[in-house]
Amino acid sequence: MTTTDLTPERLLAYLEHINDDHAEELLATIKAxxxxxxxxSAEMTQLSPEGFTALVWDGERSERxxxxxxxxxxxxxxxxxxxxxxxxxxxxxxxxxxxxxxxxLEAVIQGRRSYGVQALxxxxxxxxxxxxxxxxxxxxxxxxxxxxxxxxxxxxxxxKEDLFAQVREVFPKALPGYDPRWLENYRKxxxxxxxxxxxxxxxxxxxxxxxxxxxxxxxxxxxxxxLMAAAQGLGGLWVSGPxxxxxxxxxxxxxxxxxxxxLGLFYMGFAKRALAxxxxxxxxxxxxxxxx
Length: 292
Fold this sequence. Notes:
The protein is an alpha+beta fold. The chain folds into two domains: about 5-100, PNP-oxidase-like (Split barrel-like, Alpha-Beta Barrel), CATH 3.20.180; about 110-270, 3-Layer(aba) Sandwich (NADH Oxidase). It is built from eleven helices and seven strands. It starts with 7 loop residues before the first helix and ends in a 6-residue tail after the last helix.
């Protein structure tokens, strides 16, 4: 599909479907996006590739609400995925910052886990959900506004087979004398996870920052990505090691010239179930207060 399939008729059909079958979800979504808490009803009045307009009301008042997507929809399928992702997002109670809830954020942070590929469903992950994770990543702190984090997304059987072909070339260089079973396990890993994201670091050439700060920025970007994945019911894991960070694999993704680096591969997919809680060190064992 292309943008030509976003005809007025199709947009109207989507709008009518939302108003007829998902009015409650629309109202909850508008409130989660910062719409008025007093609203009791909502109706979408306009839908475009760039966003939507809705009317919200109660028994005494009404108000117009507008929302623009992070990026325009590329085609009808992309728009549908964006709407599904938007209306499936957690609906949080009202706070002074309308779409923010400290308890919900804390639950996501504490519930985040690293998932083995066997704990993931094979189902494809909608592009809109992946983009939402990447959009969270780009807001990571970075000293000097260098934004050193870069990503390459790999989905689909052909792209994953191509990735494995590169891994197979890298294996003897990264792991001399490796056990052939390791390579087969890597193949099962690559083909088993629905989504792979190469994690790159591309520091600024002019007025460069210390490398450790750029590494920290990329790490925080991946943390944002992982937390957003967890909030959407996706499990993931950051794969590192000599294969996933090898310079030849970095070159495959376009990061061949130092100081560019490949910092590993992140895979994700829908979790089959939530993993059991893990035991972490106590706060007292990690923190020392100096108050006097």
